[in-house]
Amino acid sequence: MEAAERLVRTWVASPRDKEVEDTASGIASGEIKLLHVVKALGEYLISEEGDLRNKGVDFLAAVLSKCPPQFFNRQSTKVLLGFFTSKLDDTETVIPALRGLLALTAVPSLIEADAVEICTSVFAHVKMQALVQAQRFIVFSIFDSLIAKQRDALRNMGDTFLSAYIALVDGEKDPRNLMVAFAIARVVAIEFDISRKVEDLFNITFCYFPITFRPPPDDPYGITADDLRNALRSCLDASPLFGSPAIPLFIDKLNAGSPVTKRDTLQTLAICLPVYGPGIARTMARKLWSSLKLEIFQPTDAVTEEEALKTTQVLIKTIYADDSTPDAEIEGLAKDACEECILILKEPEKSQAKPAIKVLSAFMSTTPSISRYTLSHAIPHLIKLFLNPDELPNRGAVLTLLFSLIAAARDSTLKAASSTSSASPEEAPFLLPYKDEVLGALITGLKTPSSTLAAIEGLSALVTTPGLLEDEEVGFVVQNVNDVISGPREDASGVIDAALDLLTAISATAPTHVSESTLPLLFSALPDRAPAREDAAAREKYRAALSSLTRLCSQAVLFETLVVRLLTRLSLLCSSGASSDDPEPAAAYAHALLTTLANVLVKKAERGDVDVPKYIERLVPRLFNLLFFSALVDREGLFVATGRIVTVAARLVNLVIQTLPEARQKVFVDTLVAAYLKGEVGQLAAGDLKLPMDDRIAPFEPGATESQGNLVAMFSQAIVALRKEITISVGDQVEFLRKLLYWSVHEAKNALQRESAWHIIAAVVNKRAQDLDSLLFPQLAEFWQSEIQPPNSADSRRLAIGAWTWVSKALLVRSHPQALPTIDRLFELFDDDDVNWDAARAVGLIGATDKILTKKNHVVIKILYAQRYANSVLPKLVEGAQSRVDPRRQTAYLVALTSLIKSIPKSAYEHEMPTLMPLLLRGLDLPDTEIRANVIDTLLAAAQSDVSAGPKDIKDGSIVAEHATSLTAVMLKNSSVATMADMKVRIAALRYLAVLPRVVRYDVLHPQRSVVLKTLSIILDDPKRVVRKEAVDARTNWYTYNG
Amino acid sequence: MSAEAFNPNPTIVNTGSSWTRRKSASERHSLWITDEDEDDYGSDDGEEPIDGDEVFDLIRSISDPEHRSMTLEQLAVVSAPQVTVTNHKNHVFVEFTPTVPHCGMSTLIGLSIRVRLLRSLPTRFKVDIKVKPGSHQSENAVNKQLNDKERVAAALENPALVEVLETCLEGAGRRGQPADA
């Protein structure tokens, strides 16, 4: 008792939450009785002074809301209820009394009669207009809580409750209260008998439609327009009784609203119509349709059009929900709309035909009987049009329409199949009755150039409809499409590509048709011998066939045939190639054949096809056989000498090895080493061509021919693809690497051989670092001393730096502790006149990604290694490039910086942009075009990400703006053919100029506009077409650039 | 814009998926096929003069003033054979076909072509823009208006007109590519 009194007194003197909590916990623990609190409050509760009364009631209400509900017994609930309701007519205490009532609504001992009493007294005394938002919120919460806990009581009050509640909440505007009000309204509309109050309830809900609320910036309550929209929609579709007043309102909003309102109305209609039911939908069908039609045939935008089509579907589904009418007797909207659309389709080439076919296609995803009805009218109509000789010029348009319909029919069957369980009996495709006519029309259309593309699309839709075409019909389609692809390859409209896509789609389900009729056709276009140098037409023919094969043959069965056939041709070429006078066409042909295989294999590897590994037997040995043969027999070795063919073959080997399991790789690597290091080629290079016995493969030996040396590329690509568990069986690993290092600098005869050696070194160092550690680094130090230090020639030192770069890369990607010390040595060379630029470039290149050290090649890669590298090197480079002590060193640092920035991800240097910008601008003065192109690309990437980020989040905008004038000037200089010979730089500079107006405010660059426009008008006459294109885009952007 | 459309339901031509320039002669005659990863900028040497295809590329994606969602190419108002470039005479000739003979938008279409070329072609070219003979009822008037420097300049002083022109030219940079690409 005393505790309660003390707490009450303290609180009245200075209201703090603590006293309320103490009291509540006192009650919870039993130390304080509720009675004590009331007694202690006594004097305040009945005080003459309004303020004190308010405080008294407020304290009681606050304590109650903190107390656990089960502490109130029936008696105390009744007393408190009586007390609070009596306080409602006292203007001073109405607010705390409401709060008290809210606390009581959650109490279990509240009975129905109490709920009724709360309602009646709230209705009687509370004037919503007199309350502020937070207080109205309490009122809404009271009803929300009563609806949740005492729904029956409220329902039994009947119309009394409805009238009073509707009158009470009418005119509410605050979104927070509306969220609650909408939730209450939904329950009321669904569960209460509203039949006599429909209009009133309609008025207090539909008056909010459409929601145009836009939350204020930094809204602390986080209620979005979408929240309100969804809450409101849940009221609007709560009762079918709303149907007849609602639909005219929706039609009004649809006809008059902004695009946003239109979209909202269409979506809401689509939700409400099924609830409102077929009766009202049928009555209003015509009016609805005439509004929807407008949105489809004269759409404001694509999204609204899409929504209108969806709503039309819902309307049709609602009207014809009862699917028992025989198909022939469809009456009403579906019939009228269908006829209307078909009338428009009488002119298939006109623009209105498109929306008409969209409507019919939308009908396909409604009910089965409507789908059948639509097709039974539309298809015969289109077929008749197609066959009408007067409409001959419009056949393409007719087939395009037909295609839309076939695709829609297919999609609706597919959708139905995926939504119902697979156990249900497969329904025949809607199109089945018209299959023959449609197929006939499409095949006829295939033969006329103007309609070929549309026919192919139609056929694609046809063959992808499950259960429609018989196997021999598919064969018939393939036969006819073959005629298309054997036509001239030079097609502007992509007909052949479309035809190949169709054949690819067919080969997914029925590969035999394609492999039996299409492939022989294409293979017959591949000659046994290469066409002569002058015969461009023949060359064009085999290239066309190869490019078709590339698109077509990724399916397993087809690829197997492709490999066999192309390898046969390669063997033939290889064995006869040397004998001809001019071997180069043969080599080019072989290269084209191998490239075809590589392109398909790349696609298959990317997809993760399971049949790739088996080509370790079927393809890899044959490749080694071919190339070893030509390196040994063909003395001029043109096949291998140019390096191009070996490169492609190596790529094929690499792709296959990548997919092999560890055990198979182990076996393979042994045969590989035996062949390359010991000359035992029998196992590795088994194949048709018999390798001569008197000569052997020894590419690493001093004095090996260039052809033999090039074979290292295949060795390298195989090693690179090994898993990290595999050790190469060469005895001493470090010694092997050391030999390779020196071989790459001194023996290797061209870039291909050198890089191949470096790739091997990088792969081994990366994957087997743990075996090498102790011995590798002394060896590297020695290599640095003997090869990179001055007495060597500059050329040889450059090569050694190249090797160093790859070793560093290999260490860096796995974040090896020795990586940074190894890279740091390169800085020692920055004041060396001969190689400082090379060393500087290397510092940047090390951070770049490449095609060798990749996950696919099973390389050990630590995440974010590039960022970490950038973080450690960038500050050093910036400092070096800024220091003016030694201009030579400064330039080297600048070169390293530009090279690094090109290689690393943008996030790694973004925050440094303010410091980097002036340095990059200086980089644009360096004479090297490669560097300039890099710098411009970097700037461009930064600017473009600003453009896509939108004006609000522009990060570098201000930095760019700061340098805008000098940037503009330097870009103009670099985009003119008179001052910049390199096309790549000109293109990059023009692209930057094009993007500048989007990232810099107009007032900043306004003085430059006329100069830019004038200079660009000269650049419009650039000798190169690609440059002119960029110049046009840049100039257009500057024309439309204004404040 | 007037309430009555001049042609509410125009004919559309199928423009195909993508239109590519014919391969250059050098590419056709090279012995080796190019690898995928080599950039396709083409070689640095050799001049590529501006030709009809290139000029057509500039104007094909201008949108029609009456049907904003469609391009002049789709409505067959312009086509590649209707553009002629004579480099040694520094002359460009563009002919266009209004969709209906009473099309009141013809001048606007012509003007948008004129402005686009004014911005995108080197100043050495003299550009003539004409309605296809017999395709418009007031052919001469339109032709005269489009090729009169003074009148073109005067039209470009009119801010309302320029605004309409800019919206027509918005898509011109697509050069035949579909809008979403």
Apparent shape of chain A: globular
Low-confidence spans of chain B:
16-26, 36-40
Could you describe the largest sheet of chain A, including whether it forms a barrel?
none
The gross shape of chain B turns out to be globular
Give the topology.
The complex is a heterodimer of chains A (1043) and B (181).
Chain A: H1 2-13, H2 17-29, H3 34-45, H4 50-66, H5 74-87, H6 94-105, H7 112-125, H8 133-149, H9 151-156, H10 159-169, H11 175-191, H12 198-206, H13 225-236, H14 243-256, H15 259-276, H16 278-297, H17 302-319, H18 333-344, H19 353-363, H20 368-387, H21 395-419, H22 435-446, H23 449-463, H24 471-485, H25 495-509, H26 511-523, H27 536-552, H28 556-577, H29 584-607, H30 615-618, H31 620-632, H32 638-641, H33 644-659, H34 662-678, H35 706-710, H36 712-720, H37 733-747, H38 751-767, H39 769-788, H40 794-813, H41 819-827, H42 836-845, H43 865-882, H44 887-903, H45 913-923, H46 929-949, H47 957-975, H48 983-999, H49 1002-1005, H50 1009-1019, H51 1025-1039
Helix pairs in contact in A: 1-2, 1-3, 2-4, 3-4, 4-6, 5-6, 5-7, 6-8, 8-11, 11-13, 14-15, 14-16, 15-17, 16-17, 17-19, 18-19, 18-20, 19-21, 20-21, 21-22, 21-23, 22-23, 23-24, 23-25, 24-25, 24-26, 25-26, 26-28, 27-29, 28-29, 28-31, 29-33, 31-33, 33-36, 34-36, 36-38, 37-38, 37-39, 37-40, 38-40, ...
Chain B: H1 25-29, H2 52-59, E1 83-86, E2 91-96, H3 106-120, E3 126-131, H4 139-146, H5 149-155, H6 159-169
Parallel strand pairs in B: 2-3
Antiparallel strand pairs in B: 1-2
